[in-house]
Amino acid sequence: MRCWNSVSAPGLLDALLEFRPDLAIVDIRLPPTHTDGGLRAALAARERILGLPILLLSQYVEQIYAQELLADQAGGVGHLLKDRVFSDDQFVDVIRTVAAGGAVMDPEVVSKLLIRRSRGEREPLSRLTERERQVLELMAEGRSNSAIANRLFISEKAVSKHSTSIFTKLELAPSDDDNRRVLAVLAYLMSVPREGRIPPSH
User: Fold this and answer.
1) Where does 2-155 have alpha helices with state H?
2) Structure pTM?
3) 18 and 93 both lie in a single domain
4) For 9-45, what is each residue's pLDDT tens digit?
């Protein structure tokens, strides 16, 4: 296993492109700006290396970070708050999940992203059918419509139909500001405990 410590955002980007690691653990705030350099470097690397697993660490909840990271829908993403990593086992589990192509978001991050309506309700996942929940779970694993179709033994057209129904039931209307797929995945990650997820049918 190679461990590479970058002291700047440009250095991080160069290292990611050169070494193409199995997983990059990235601090969002890096020199020289100490703002969002780490995030920008990670996004730039994922544009060149599709699906490069990235685990972001940050001190505070800032909505734009998770939304931008998940926007390419390639999977292999995570965003944790530094002061909420409570154990080595927990952190290792997150690393394995992200490295395998899954998505892990700190509940605080997800909550911030989902507080969008004045009445403060979370997305009504209970409205989804069993098949729609299966599609959403696979979507949350970073799978494309084609991969979801193969996993569930249905057509891509059926996956698209289920996805549209999911967005409608979660009240995720099209807009210039929101990525409905991202918000649906975040709703799922926050609201459904791991042990309660419905396994895909075979």
Assistant:
1) 9-19, 37-48, 63-70, 88-99, 107-114, 130-140, 145-152
2) 0.59
3) yes
4) 889 999 999 999 999 999 988 888 888 888 889 889 9
